[in-house]
Design a protein that fits this description.
Elements lengths: L3 E4 L3 H7 L17 E4 L4 E7 L5 E8 L9 H9 L3 E3 L10 H6 L1 E6 L1 E5 L11 E6 L2 H4 L3 E11 L5 E11 L10 E3 L7 H5 L6 H7 L12 E5 L28
Length: about 250
């Protein structure tokens, strides 16, 4: 987890939902197409604080590029191994620890996909789509806790990249997979994005499991077709629920 997710919102919608008031002209905002099958290394939206410690909407390549990458080939290789950072070790891992202290972000999503493991009650590799149960009524996005970093390619090009922070799954989500994204309630967004907060213990406390009541609350998971397995497929049909056999249908 998490290896694929969806985002169909326009920048203007994200500005409103994530309370970004930097006065940026809509014409200058980054623009990405609606994507129901976002894969690693693709450009994604993220919400971060700028040098003035104010929220901004930006884009980055999904998968953290290790700072010591010497060329694009090694950068791409490092990305494929760092699309997610484990909450238990993000503060210590060399690829992630600097970003965890200094460059945190929120990664918006309509929802994300997860594939059932053999440890749960579902057929292994059955894909599920997980989203807010208020998506239809309020189009409420999910906000993954994330980190981002900046890499300078040999030709001088500046590349921003990001990773999603994951944690052990809880509640009904644990019946699908053992991991889930780390979600932060809105009252922690300011502290999470605040670049002046750099103490690892203080940052980790924002993700403390015992302080996040029912991290799976307000989410729903529906089985979807295997079309999502192919990166060539893209469209709202990927998130359409399907029926499972009677023994497997729990929610």
């Amino acid at each position: 987890m998490c290896g694929r997710f969806a985002l169909s919102k326009l920048p203007a919608e994200l500005l409103e939902e994530f309370e970004i008031h930097t006065g940026e002209s809509l014409a200058r905002l980054p623009l990405l197409p609606a994507d129901w099958n976002i894969t690693p290394t693709r450009e994604i939206f993220l919400v971060r604080n700028n040098s003035d410690n104010q929220r901004e909407l930006a884009t980055a390549s999904w998968g953290m590029i290790a700072g010591w990458s010497k060329d694009r080939e090694s950068a791409l290789r490092s990305q494929s191994q760092a699309i997610n950072a484990r909450s238990e070790s993000v503060a210590e891992k060399p690829t992630f620890r600097s970003a965890f202290r200094n460059r945190r972000c929120l990664i918006p999503a309509d929802g994300y996909y997860e594939w059932a493991t053999e440890l749960g009650p579902y057929s292994p590799k059955q894909p599920f789509y997980i989203a807010s149960d208020e998506w239809e009524s309020k189009r409420r996005s999910l906000a993954f806790a994330g980190i981002w970093d900046r890499w300078i390619a040999p030709d001088g090009q500046i590349v921003d990249s990001a990773s999603i922070i994951t944690r052990p799954a809880v509640g009904f989500l644990a019946t699908v997979h053992s991991r889930m994204p780390t979600f932060l309630p809105t009252d922690r967004w300011d502290s999470w994005l605040d670049r002046s907060i750099q103490d690892p213990d203080e940052i980790s406390a924002l993700m403390a499991f015992h302080k996040l009541e029912e991290p799976d609350r307000g989410l729903r998971a529906v089985p979807v077709s295997s079309m999502v397995n192919s990166i060539r497929n893209n469209g709202p049909e990927l998130i359409a629920p399907i029926e499972l056999g009677e023994p497997e249908t729990l929610f």
